[in-house]
Design a protein that fits this description.
Elements (H helix, E strand, L loop, with lengths): L5 E9 L3 E5 L6 E6 L5 E5 L7 E5 L3 E8 L4 E2 L1 H10 L5 H11 E2 L2 H9 L7 H8 L3 H12 L3 H17 L5 H8 L4 H12 L3 H5 L2 H8 L4
Antiparallel strand pairs: 1-6, 2-5, 3-4, 3-6, 7-8
Helix pairs in contact: 1-2, 6-7, 6-8
Amino acid sequence: MPETTIADIWEHTSSSVNTSVILPDGCRDLIVEVTDNSRLDCFVTDLFDTPFHTRSCVNSHMVGFRFKAGTTVDVVRLLNAVQKAETTSKTEIVALIEEFTSLSANLNDALISFKNAGQSVSAVAAGLGVELRSLQRLVYKQTGRSPVYWRQLARVRNAGRMLTESNELADVASLAGFSDQAHMTREFRRWFGVTPKVFLQNRSYKDQLGAIAY
């Protein structure tokens, strides 16, 4: 039986209009939203490379089904099936997700390997026993992003999690695999839109890096 492509199921209820900043997490979500007039809306998020600004409607309830990093999604058929479903029960939607998504075992192994701090893409390829070009083609074809994207995203998210335990920036930069503190700061600005110090002052950012994602 194929392994599930679902990493997490989350819920969010909004009683007022509000905006949120979502940090890049390497995952896509199927989001099913019901507003106060019982209107059903569903969509699949894209991968993004910079902070994403989202807006919640008044009296809306969202249920999100987070796909594991690298999951291939037949978006059109999945959304059509969800819209036509007799109910919006989690069990029924999970069954539809399993029907219209897949995750390559080889890709999954590669993405897990990219999380190892200090490993270059060529080192990951060698560890997996494949040619560098083959790994690059596999990752790009199935995710639309290069191995460098995944390696850098994993590194900056790992550094962010480390900062929740220690505010010694230079030490965290070294442990996370950056060349120095300035390098880490540049990557924080690129991916999160803020410096490490500002990141530490934002509870939402820290909470996001503690959630299930890449």
